[in-house]
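Worked example (supplementary).
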Amino acid sequence: MADTAEHVHGQQVLDRVIIRFAGDSGDGMQLTGDRFTSASALFGNDLATLPVFPAEIRAPAGTLAGVSAFQVHISDHPITTPGDAPNVLVAMNPAALRSELHTLEPGGVVIVNTDAFEARNLAKAGYDSNPLEDDSLKAYTVYEVPMTSLTKEACADLDVKPRDAERSKNFFALGVISWMYTRPMEPTLEWIAGKFAGKPAVLAANTAAFKAGHAFGETAELFESTYQVRPATLEPGTYTSITGNTALAWGLVAASRQAELPLFLGSYPITPASDILHELSKHKNFGVRTLQAEDEIAGIGSALGAAFGGHLAVTTTSGPGVALKSETMGLAVSLELPLLVIDIQRGGPSTGLPTKTEAADLLMAMYGRHGESPMPIVAPRSPADCFDAAVEAARIALKYRTPVMLLSDGYLANSSEPWRLPDVSTLPDLRTTFATEPNHVDDEGNPEFWPYLRDPDTLARDWAIPGTPGLMHRIGGIEKQDGSGNISYDPANHQRMVDLRAAKVAGIAADIPEVAVEGDVDDAELLVLGWGSTWGAIDGAVDRARGQGLKVARAHLTHLNPFPSNLGDVLRRYPRVLVPEMNLGQLSLLVRAEFLVDARPLSKVRGEPFTAGEIEAAIREEISR
Amino acid sequence: MSDVEITTKKDWSSDQEVRWCPGCGDYSILTAVQMLMPDLGVNRENTVFVSGIGCAARFPYYMNTYGMHSIHGRAPAIATGLAMARPDLDVWVIGGDGDNLSIGGNHLIHALRRNINLTILMFNNQIYGLTKGQYSPTSEVGKVTKSTPFGSLDTPFNPLSVALGAEATFVARTHDMDRAHMIETFRRAHDHKGAAFVEIYQNCNVFNDGAFSDITGRANRESMLIPLRHGEPIRFGAEGSLCVTLSSQGHASIANVADVGEDAILVHDESRQDPDLAFTLSRLSRGPHEPTPIGVFRAVERPEYGSAVSEQLAAAQATKGPGDLDALLRSGATWDVA
Ligand code: SF4
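After joint prediction of all chains, the assembly is encoded as:
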């Protein structure tokens, strides 16, 4: 079932296990996966998750289009990915089995809700015959559990309608799996008690179903043994389980605190970014103002207005929204005001695959505005890293008076991992200085304020906010005279301003860490260069390849614009460079253009993250080329 | 507001050379605003003018206040964020009919319905001036311009009807030929808590000269402009011989006082919560060639958005205490690794 297994008192100890819960979108699979994850996190495992949502919110029940799945990887050692192929598939109906079976490892375990395998559901899933009755599953270990009827039975003595009782079957499944993997029951029971406190019937039904599932595992003598995945030896500290979107929202709150500026979010709902709006809307006691704008353009427009007023301003969206915001981003570049544009990338173009992940907005982030309009770009590598990326994006924006693009993606947004909580007293100081005095003298010797006088080191302009006496000034999208900020159509001035804006962003390279190389630093035959959420899979792949004696190094970029100052040297040091990307080769295009190296893309645009196995195979192939 | 500086018109004028075409109606609007500002009891540093793109949108450059000349149509959205973030500021939005009703129509209606604390001055010249003379969303049907050589086909917006339909709490109309009326209307708009929308008939003497002269020309005003005054019967014409009456169906029309009698004259009530009357008055004239009401059509109270947001923040702080980042990070289930 996993890499190593030893028997302890009729219980097998595993070093890791990957479970995939799958059912109809109405079956509560995300919740089930989430609860299993939480219990495992509290138990001390390292873990990574991969929620897979159906694209259609209201796909007909029981169909393939309506299947919702949640994969969780738990281990007794540090891991970085939700795992390649699951060891266990829990299938709540025929559609879930049919749609997800291909992900399962050869010989893996399938636990099915047999009650759902009746003619109508089989037909909806496109099965000609019942897979539980023919030979089609003989390569797997199949456990057949009548979850619906057992759940109804467990609720029989409660004051719950059979229809409502049936809806608790996901907790029955959770009970079975919790027993199988020796998860403590208390955290889940406590959670149910808290979550459904206001709905006594649901509380009772879920509790009964969960306990019944657990008891079923214990007494049914169906399963050969239980399994144990011991706590991982993680770095000492306090941990919480966090998704990328929550980490990002909290990172923005942290940045606001560190900058001592109120946070403003202007945003229009869009999958998979809306959860950041939801999360930040809760934290009004932190002084966070959120506006659900009338459209994407107003989302960024209102944020830019708040930035002009001296707030730490943010807009959140996904790819299509970025396209709509591009004109305002250009204005922000021209106004040289701090602004965070957060893109939770999804499959494109157009509506594309709204619930699926992709990372194909890099070139749009780099170049998707008219004119020479450079914007720094920051990309988190893991769900928890979204916190640090938000803080870093805010640091750059405030220090350099520039809009900054943060590129997360659908996978990071919804996946979770344990996060060692930072000591908030060690977060960076993001305070910036507003101008309060005139910075120039006019021809007649009168003091005045010039909004485009710059700090000689950072090239950041002086920033005076409305309300500051004596520093009234006007700024706008028309080209400005260097220094005074007055309208200027002078050709030489335009050249100078374009150069200055480019130099300002390029100069950030001196203010970000060099890119680190890990693995066979000195003698690798191949460097794997990554950015964003591919980090976990690259990490796993490089470890495996090196374990088999291949000479491989890896480097991962957090800053995509500007690149770290040593990136060119690093790339030229290795005979081969492989760039796994969830696009058709956008980073590889950029590094080829900038550094004249033969970086080769490894592309995947299937709406799902890379597995370590896929990258490992590509490493092997590239080295043998 | 404490410590209001004593200022003059000159203090509110920036050092930038004003660059509208000679004779443009924008000049008189600018003068009216600059003359009004010293009387408003506000300081220059707390005043912000935000504009989009178009001839009118150059306005902020000429005011010695904070200002942003932004991008086409987006001024109401940008001003929304600024007014929400900084309720201490006086935020003005300046734009033309193209800026506000075409490319930025969505932002305008949402700023109005949210009742953001903005003073929105829409310069309506029924033409695109900056791009040199295409028809606009307020141009009359059949308008022959460079982009409509055979006449425009689209029905124009009635800006006041749009604003009223968008739940605006303050709606008024004035025109560039009457400085005193502009100043009074702008003052009312400024003092209104929430979004105030003012349509200003503005002559573009280069691309649409005389568009409003049928009603705003000095000789025509008495018989063609219908001044609205709260609480007063709506009368106009020589010695108030004409008036507005309301049919039993709620339809407003123009009549001779002599024919209908004083009792039949509609009494203006700008404070009616129900916008029907204001809407009916906004439909009285089909364009600036018929008797047209000017003044304040509607001025009602409704919670202003930015203040409501601030109240929610204050309430959250009162119940939960000020934000504690460490506690936030620990707000989910946590566990310790030794
Ligand atoms: S084009 Fe028309 S509106 Fe524009 S400045 Fe000239 S006269 Fe005024």
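Two points are worth noting when inspecting this output. Chain B has a mean pLDDT of 96. The longest strand of chain B covers residues 292-299.
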